[in-house]
Specification:
Helix content is about 20%, strand content about 20%. The protein is an alpha+beta fold and about 270 residues long.
């Protein structure tokens, strides 16, 4: 019985060794297969089994601050200004023809000047200088010129013009104011009461406007004379500056015949 038991144990050891070797061989085969098919360095990551669902919340992008970087300035392109629209050239107006000397002479002839009377200067124009007044006994300016003339002597219009005033004044006697065509103004004083013209009359150089008188004028202390004043632009000027070279009534051949007696001066001729 002892020999049989020893034989059974040896057979069991032999079987166990076989299985061990078989397990080792299988292990080698599995490892070799893994290395061959999977390869070194290739590791399979476990699959993420998390279930992702679409989000209903709108995505808000946060702006990212960009640092200030000084970039090289690009050369500015030259600005081309549009040419201004040219305005239509205005045609020059034809120059106004200036009157020639011949036209001026024909349209506006030089005024004719006639001495108011043919007598000499008795008392001249004084301007701003004070002179003795024989009638008033004081010193004052003499704004006109006194021409010696007897009472009744004819007095003539010194140039063409219009009568602005014709009246008798207790201090200055008969007065006639003429607005002359050249813009001046002539004032007669010491005329007689019978004045030949009236306000608004047109007169020509050499027309008789009256005679020298003697009634209550302010220069009664002087000899019989005619007082004449001449104004330019409202300022008195020396009458002799104009009448000094003027023609006498005889030289001009006035409208009224000088041969008519002085006593008939007021008769319409």
């Amino acid at each position: 019985m002892h020999k049989q038991g020893t034989g059974y144990t040896g057979q069991g050891k032999s079987d166990r060794g076989f299985y061990i070797i078989l397990a080792i061989c299988l292990t080698v085969i599995v490892v070799s297969s893994y290395i061959l098919f999977v390869g070194p360095g290739k590791k399979e990551e476990p699959m993420d089994e998390t279930l992702y669902l679409p989000s209903t919340t709108p995505t808000v992008q946060t702006p990212v601050a960009v640092p200030n970087v000084d970039l090289p300035a690009e050369p500015a392109e030259p600005t081309v200004q549009p040419e201004p629209a040219k305005e239509p050239e205005k045609k020059p107006e034809p120059p106004k023809s200036e009157p020639t000397k011949k036209q001026t002479a024909a349209e506006a002839p030089a005024p004719i000047w006639i001495k108011p009377v043919d007598g000499a200067v008795l008392k001249p124009f004084s301007g701003d200088e004070l002179v003795k007044d024989e009638t008033m006994g004081d010193w004052r300016v003499h704004t006109g010129t006194d021409y010696a003339a007897d009472t009744g002597t004819r007095v003539y219009a010194v140039s063409d013009g219009t009568v602005e005033r014709a009246a008798v004044d207790p201090l200055y006697g008969g007065i006639v104011v003429l607005n002359l065509k050249d813009g001046k103004q002539a004032v007669y004083q010491c005329l007689g009461e019978k004045i030949k013209v009236k306000t608004g009359d047109k007169v020509r150089a050499g027309d008789v406007i009256g005679t020298v008188g003697t009634i209550g004028h302010a220069e009664a202390a002087q000899k019989s004379h005619l007082h004449v004043e001449l104004y330019k632009g409202g300022e008195p000027i020396d009458p002799e500056s104009v009448f000094g070279k003027a023609k006498t009534s005889a030289e001009h051949k006035p409208a009224v015949d000088a041969s008519v007696p002085q006593s008939k001066i007021d008769v319409e001729e």
